[in-house]
Amino acid sequence: MTSISNQLPGYAQYGAAYARAAGSQSSLATLLNGSSDDTLLGASSNAATNLTLSAQARAQLASAAATKDFSSVVSDSRAALDKLYKAAGVTAPYDDSGKPTIDLTSLDRRALYAVASNAGGQFTESEQTLAAVTRIAGFNAALSPATQTAKLTGNYNAVYKAAADYLDGASNEEKATSTWQAERAAIGKGITATQNDPTKIPSGISNDPVAAYLAQYPSGSPTTTQDFASVAKSARAALDAQAKAASAAGKELVYDPGRKVGQQADLSALSNRDLSAISLNKDSLFSTEETSAAKRELDSRNRASILTALKQSQTSGNPADFSLGLLNTYSAMSDEERTATNWTPAFRDNAVQSYKSTTTLLSLLKSS
């Protein structure tokens, strides 16, 4: 097993917490190896209390957190943990079997850093461990789509770029650590090496968390997703909550953007998998208006992801990056999301072929 200190930037300096995550919590080590049926942190689970925030709310919280002094972040993180305990009716982050009782994915990167590093001495050993494991899951999730794409295209440069994006999203406190700086420098070397030869995983780079990740997860890290029927029920509850709030305000919740009367449903807080559950409506839990609205929202997000891939290729000046962007989006989807958006295996294969053809053509042009 690859040691946790080699998997995620900043982990080595928190020795005690990460050693516990890898060692004494044997069930957590099993989770990290992907050999358990338990749910990884970051995925939905009946075993852990989770708070769902809209994209807008997350952006506002992230912006607010960035302007806070670190002592406020520490105290707010302590309060957030206590709130999660109260909501779950528990007093510790793990039950007697070693399974998480709360989900820390609602905390931003700066808060997780505060907990994992035991800033201000405010957090227990178990809380530090859970924060460490959550951050490992975040790193794995960031690299997994690009790694799956690399298996299709043979281009590992995108994996290093994904890692760079993840590290660059760290807080200033984490960036100030020698561990973050060493691993960011290693990833920079990896980017340069894979630009010269994208088909080979660089070797011999000290402190390279990507090489460690790829050694452990050559096809991308495993994920355990919530049962799709449970996703549908959760989405149903979310829509019902909006309808109840609208009714309390004396309004009707409506899904047609052309309606001038009523309160428009807000689907921005729902994940793509939630929207897929509404759109596919396998258990007949949703009305025609609700499924149509979910399809419109999915189509809008679909177009946005395609546009993002196109802009990335224009920015880099490499037309092959468009296909890479599409493949990364495909790799990040669940099977249900692919069905709902009609991103079929044939679509994937066409994108792979387009990438390879474009890369070959560009290579010929450079050598001519």
Alpha plus pi helix count: 16
Mean pLDDT, to the nearest integer, reads 84
Strand residues, percent: under 5%
Mass-distribution shape: globular
What radius of gyration results from the CA coordinates? Answer: 22 Å
SSE class: mainly alpha
Succession of helices and strands: HHHHHHHHHHHEEHHHHH
Gap between N and C termini:
46 Å
Number of separate domains: 2
Strand order of the largest sheet: 1-2
Instruction: Specify the helix fraction band.
Output: 55-70%
The unreliable regions are 1-47, 49-53
Task: Count the beta strands.
Answer: 2
Sheet with most strands: 2 strands, parallel
Provide an overview of this structure.
- The protein has 2 domains: 4-37 and 52-216, no CATH class; 228-367, no CATH class.
- Helices cover 62% and strands 1% of the residues.
- The protein has helices at residues 15-22, 26-32, 55-67, 70-88, 109-116, 125-153, 157-168, 172-175, 178-196, 209-216, 228-248, 272-280, 288-316, 320-332, 335-341, 345-367; strands at residues 253-254, 263-264.
- Strands 1-2 form a two-stranded parallel ribbon.
- The longest helix is centred in the middle third of the chain and has 29 residues, at 125-153.
- The protein is globular, with a radius of gyration of 22 Å.
